[in-house]
Amino acid sequence: MKIRMLYFAFLLLLLAGCDEIVKDEEVPQIDMTGANDFPQNCAKVYRGEAFVFSATLTDNTELGSYSIEMHHNFDHHTHSTSGTSCEMEEVKSPVNPFVFIEEYEIPAGLTSYAIQNQIVVPANVDTGDYHITVRLTDKSGWQTFKGIAVKVTDR
Questions:
Q1: Helix or strand or coil: residue 135?
Q2: Does a structural domain hold residue 19?
Q3: Residue 149's domain is classified under what CATH number?
Q4: Separation of alpha carbons 78 and 111, rounded Å
């Protein structure tokens, strides 16, 4: 019985000495303010060519994963997180719209990660207004996104 009491007392002392578990209460960040970050809101990308999506992802504790999605905006819906509005074409129905959806894992333990992902725009897709949406999730599950309006056009 005494051993049990000593064990219990030791356990209480051990727990009292432990630091508090720190909760991650901050969302990760998508930074596209660098000189080489692309695309910026209202940028043009070209049919039949590739472009490199580049940004810097950061988190206060640890990054997890991100995804990039590109889809048409022929109906003028919005995902923009920019205060800049772009000149839009007339509303139209898609015939052969471009859709790109990819998910990427970030190496473990990182709090900052520069991304450079090549996206090939097929030569036969509809030209016009498109959105690129980047979603970033940290290891704790917090998520943020950035919406960018671009125009797919011919050169």
A1: strand
A2: no
A3: 2.60.40.10
A4: 30
- Which pLDDT score is estimated for 93? 96
Residue 134 lies in a domain: yes
Triad 142, 61, 144: Cα angle to 5°: 25
Q: Which two tokens stand for residue 138?
A: 């940290």
Domains of the chain: total: 1
Segments of the chain scoring below 70 in pLDDT? 1-22, 79-80, 82-83
Domain extent at residue 103 = 24-153
Q: For residue 28, say if its preceding peptide bond is cis, omega within 30 degrees of 0.
A: no
Question: Tell me: the pLDDT tens digits for 38-73?
Answer: 999 999 999 999 999 999 999 999 999 999 999 999
- Using the 8-state DSSP alphabet, how is residue 24 labeled? -
pLDDT at 82: 67
CA angle 41, 47, 75 (to 5 degrees): 55
Enter the DSSP assignment of 127.
Answer: P
pLDDT at 29: 98
Tell me if 122 is assigned to some domain. Answer: yes
CA distances from 86 to 50, 122, 131 (A): 22, 23, 11
